[in-house]
């Protein structure tokens, strides 16, 4: 008995996750570790399941965006090092201490407040990765003086351990490498300033997927592997370079809920924006924009039925989508692929992203709590997780 009642599901191929980790393991220097980035519920693939698979496949640590995501991983029994990449309010530092999760910091005031709270509550020390803003314009120290001030404040605290130093590249996935090289030079200058001050460096990291592909020699102590872990390339340019061969891990599937043949023309969906030709086969699929399947695909997207494309007709609804079956006889219960492969055909996340005017990162992240995740290994189901029932 399936643990879910609507025949729409995400399928995650854990063999692909494993293969992608192994691909990057071979691509980067032997001394460089892999930090698997599983924020945003594993880019929509399931943070716990993907995190476990990545660690088992050779990743050394995990990274998330916020402390809450780290707590979910700890509650699931994951004991590997976890770094929170984003901002954590200082009043939450006690949770990081109790769950032994490392945090990102870049402000002296934050360091001093976090130190005060940890001392006040007599809690265990917390590992801190100092972030440098070398050109992302998001979080981080921007000058050597700021950096030395933050590191100095950490050294004065016996409740905060200086565990890392990192930066994030804004344009590593672009053909023109001027910006990323300028960022890397600035990061190297920060490292030199710290060494010149007589300090030993903690764990140093700067590479996201794109930088890891294009500049594996910049790996330092670890890369932060996000989109590549899921078998997706950071940009069309990076896909063309093809320095590494990645296997997409996610498919989105459903089963036909209703079929009709419109002998006479009928209009389809809200706004009656589509009128059928005589005798068109119209199938209704139990998925809509409330699942994170974009309404921008209305009258534009396609799905796969019996290995062929079927066009989305009319507007994508909150819970349902209609398609025109172009070949074959559709029946209720027949499987349809919305993202992924069926036979020789494939609807990639890159294609869907281009259709709706975004990047491949966003497409799986949009899929939400209403869609259960089915995990596959060697072509067989090995687990199901339904956020609705957790
Ligand atoms: C700070 C930080 N680091 C790393 C990543 C992963 O990037 P990719 O998904 O492009 O690999 C994201 C991020 O926000």
From TrEMBL:
User: What superkingdom does the record give?
Assistant: Bacteria
Q: What class of enzyme is it?
A: isomerase
How is this protein annotated for GO cellular component? cytosol
| A GO MF label | alanine racemase activity
Summarize where substrate binds, as residue positions.
Answer: 138, 318
Pathway(s) served:
Amino-acid biosynthesis; D-alanine biosynthesis; D-alanine from L-alanine: step 1/1
Q: Show the InterPro entries listed in the entry.
A: Ala_racemase, Ala_racemase/Decarboxylase_C, Ala_racemase_C, Ala_racemase_N, Ala_racemase_pyridoxalP-BS, PLP-binding_barrel
Please give the SUPFAM superfamilies that the UniProt record associates with this protein: Alanine racemase C-terminal domain-like, PLP-binding barrel
Q: Which reaction is recorded as catalysed by this protein?
A: L-alanine = D-alanine
Protein's name in the database: Alanine racemase
């Amino acid at each position: 008995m399936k643990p879910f009642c609507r025949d729409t599901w995400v399928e995650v191929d854990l063999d692909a996750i494993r293969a992608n980790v192994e691909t990057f393991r071979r691509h980067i220097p032997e001394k460089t570790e892999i930090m698997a980035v599983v924020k945003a519920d594993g880019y929509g693939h399931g943070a716990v399941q993907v995190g476990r698979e990545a660690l088992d496949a050779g990743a050394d640590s995990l990274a998330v965006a916020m402390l809450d995501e780290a707590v979910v991983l700890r509650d699931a029994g994951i004991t590997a090092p976890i770094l929170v990449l984003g901002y954590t309010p200082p009043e939450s530092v006690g949770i990081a201490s109790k769950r032994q999760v490392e945090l990102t910091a870049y402000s002296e005031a934050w360091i001093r407040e976090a130190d005060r709270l940890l001392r006040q509550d007599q809690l265990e020390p917390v590992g801190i990765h100092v972030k440098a803003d070398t050109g992302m314009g998001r979080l981080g120290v921007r000058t050597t003086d700021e950096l030395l001030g933050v590191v100095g404040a950490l050294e004065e605290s016996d409740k905060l351990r200086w565990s890392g130093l990192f930066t994030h590249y804004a344009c590593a996935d672009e053909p023109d490498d001027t910006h990323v090289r300028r960022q890397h030079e600035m990061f190297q200058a920060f490292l030199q300033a710290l060494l010149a001050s007589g300090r030993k460096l903690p764990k140093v990291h700067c590479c996201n997927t794109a930088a890891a592909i294009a500049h594996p020699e910049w790996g330092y102590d670890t890369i932060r592997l996000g989109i590549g872990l899921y078998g997706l390339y950071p940009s069309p340019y990076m896909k063309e370079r093809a320095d590494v061969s990645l296997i997409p891990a996610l498919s989105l599937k459903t089963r036909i809920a209703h079929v009709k043949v419109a002998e006479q023309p009928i209009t389809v969906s809200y706004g009656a924006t589509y009128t059928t030709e005589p005798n068109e086969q119209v199938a209704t699929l139990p998925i809509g924009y409330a699942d994170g399947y974009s309404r921008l695909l209305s009258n534009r997207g396609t799905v796969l039925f019996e290995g062929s494309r079927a066009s989305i007709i009319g507007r994508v609804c909150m819970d349902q989508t209609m398609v025109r079956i172009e070949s074959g006889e559709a029946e209720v219960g027949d499987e349809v692929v919305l993202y992924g492969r069926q036979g020789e055909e494939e609807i990639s996340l890159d294609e869907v992203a281009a259709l709706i005017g975004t990047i491949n990162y966003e497409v799986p992240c949009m899929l939400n709590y209403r869609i259960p995740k089915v995990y596959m290994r060697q072509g067989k189901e090995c687990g199901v997780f339904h956020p609705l029932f957790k």
